[in-house]
From TrEMBL:
It comes from the Archaea. InterPro entries: Alkaline_phosphatase_core_sf (IPR017850), Phosphodiest/P_Trfase (IPR002591). One of its GO terms (molecular function) is hydrolase activity. This is Type I phosphodiesterase / nucleotide pyrophosphatase. PANTHER family: BIS(5'-ADENOSYL)-TRIPHOSPHATASE, ECTONUCLEOTIDE PYROPHOSPHATASE/PHOSPHODIESTERASE.
Length: 412
């Protein structure tokens, strides 16, 4: 069943050509609290009750998070991937918005904590922290030169606590099937470059998990191939097909290893964000005319311009005080984009309510969200302007994601 409220959510959250997060109800940020609630734990706000109506006596929740596979991608691949149609018939697909920014670094920190970006302070893939005088990539916590930041600890990248201690305190065992280990859960790692290794890692988790349990499986391959190739490419479609073949195999493994009633296992498929194809020939370069913004930027204490904050669909500009207004005027004249001043970001609660000091100091003086292109610095990262599919902004195709749910017995 495809939830009929997708259009209603779209209309309610629309702001012109942009779509705003539904933080108060139908938001990705509420999935961890919902999973916890189904398993008898309290880990923060949950989705409205109708999102999981009919799922009673759940003792195991399995979440497959397919990176970048938003609602538009689900719709676009439905005819080619029988699994998606079969899942719709067996269960339901509920539309949600993701958080802003619609980026993996921000969204996954939310997913593992329940905290919104305004709380945890990960403003995008790239983060500038003035207290630490550091520029770094939140994932994988490295500077642009490949070295690890020296003036900030990995634990301080996000200002939040994970949900997993709360789950453990309630007796819920958590297993992660991811390309990287998790210290707070039982890890089952695999090689992201070789999807065949996912199956063995997932089988290990399914066999070892003692109920009540939560199994989280993360698949980043579709997002990775979409960036250079776009969502209409053959390479993307092949990766989507392989990804969902692995998900389908994993569900079969669940059925083989299930103890007792398979109706007590809830299977979920979701995404951290969707994708929008840009035009690399037209993606604006902030280091070139008419912008030439590098000289307007504040610098680190060593004189390095603070170019990298946010992402090409969520650009945070940390500007010299006397350049904020002129740059704002230039960008609003030259770009088909929303340019938010810091005050407006906070007033509109774009990243969520209750901003933390960590978020406020990392927030740019201006935040640039183009309608459908990527905006970045070609002098230092020309490859980012060459990407086709991107995410991070407020386009409906980036912001709307599926939460597909079905009991294991209905999928057999």
């Amino acid at each position: 069943m495809f939830d009929a409220d997708a259009q209603a959510l779209r209309e309610r959250q629309s702001d012109g050509d942009y779509l705003l997060p539904a933080y108060d109800d139908w938001c990705f940020s509420r999935v961890p609290g919902t999973v916890a609630d189904l398993l008898g734990a309290d880990a923060g706000p949950r989705l409205p009750a109708e999102a999981t109506a009919g799922y009673d006596d759940v003792s195991r929740v399995v979440v497959f998070l397919v990176d970048g596979f938003g609602l538009a991608q689900w719709d676009g691949e439905r005819d080619r991937i029988p699994f998606l149609r079969e899942f719709e018939r067996a269960g339901r697909v509920t539309p949600l918005t993701t958080v802003f920014p619609s980026e993996t670094a921000a969204a996954l920190n939310t997913f593992h904590s329940g905290a919104l970006p305004a709380e945890h302070g990960v403003v995008g893939w790239n983060v500038y922290d003035p207290d630490a005088d550091e520029l770094f990539e939140a994932l994988p916590f490295l500077r642009k030169d490949g070295t690890e930041p020296e003036r900030i600890d990995r634990a301080d990248v996000a200002d939040c606590e994970s949900v997993y201690p709360d789950l453990a305190a309630a007796g819920v065992e958590t297993h992660h099937v991811t390309p990287f280990p998790s210290e707070e859960t039982v890890p089952h790692t695999y090689d992201p470059e070789d999807l065949s290794t996912f199956s063995d890692a997932f089988a290990e988790a399914a066999e070892e998990a003692a109920d009540p349990s939560y199994v989280f499986a993360y698949l980043p391959q579709t997002d990775a191939v979409a960036h250079p190739e776009g969502v209409d490419s053959e390479a993307y479609r092949e990766t989507v097909a392989e990804t969902f073949a692995r998900v389908e195999d994993a569900i079969a493994t669940l059925a083989e290893t299930a103890d007792g009633d398979a109706g007590e296992t809830l299977v979920c498929v979701t995404a951290d964000h969707g994708l929008v194809d840009t035009d690399p020939e037209r993606n604006p370069d902030l280091s070139e005319p008419p912008f030439d913004l590098v000289s307007d930027l504040r610098t680190l204490t060593d004189g390095t311009p603070i170019r990298f904050s946010g992402s090409p669909r969520n650009v945070h500009l940390h500007l010299k005080d006397d350049r904020i207004d002129p740059v704002y005027d230039l960008l609003t004249t030259e770009l088909d984009a929303r340019v938010f001043r810091k005050r407006e970001v906070l007033e509109r609660e774009l990243f969520g309510p209750d901003p933390s000091p960590t978020f406020e100091r990392r927030l740019g003086d201006l935040v640039v969200v183009h309608r459908d292109l990527g905006v970045w610095y070609g002098d230092e990262e020309p490859g980012n302007l060459g990407f086709v599919a991107m995410h991070g902004g407020l386009h409906p195709d980036e912001m709307l994601i599926p939460l597909a749910t079905a009991t294991l017995d209905s999928l057999r």
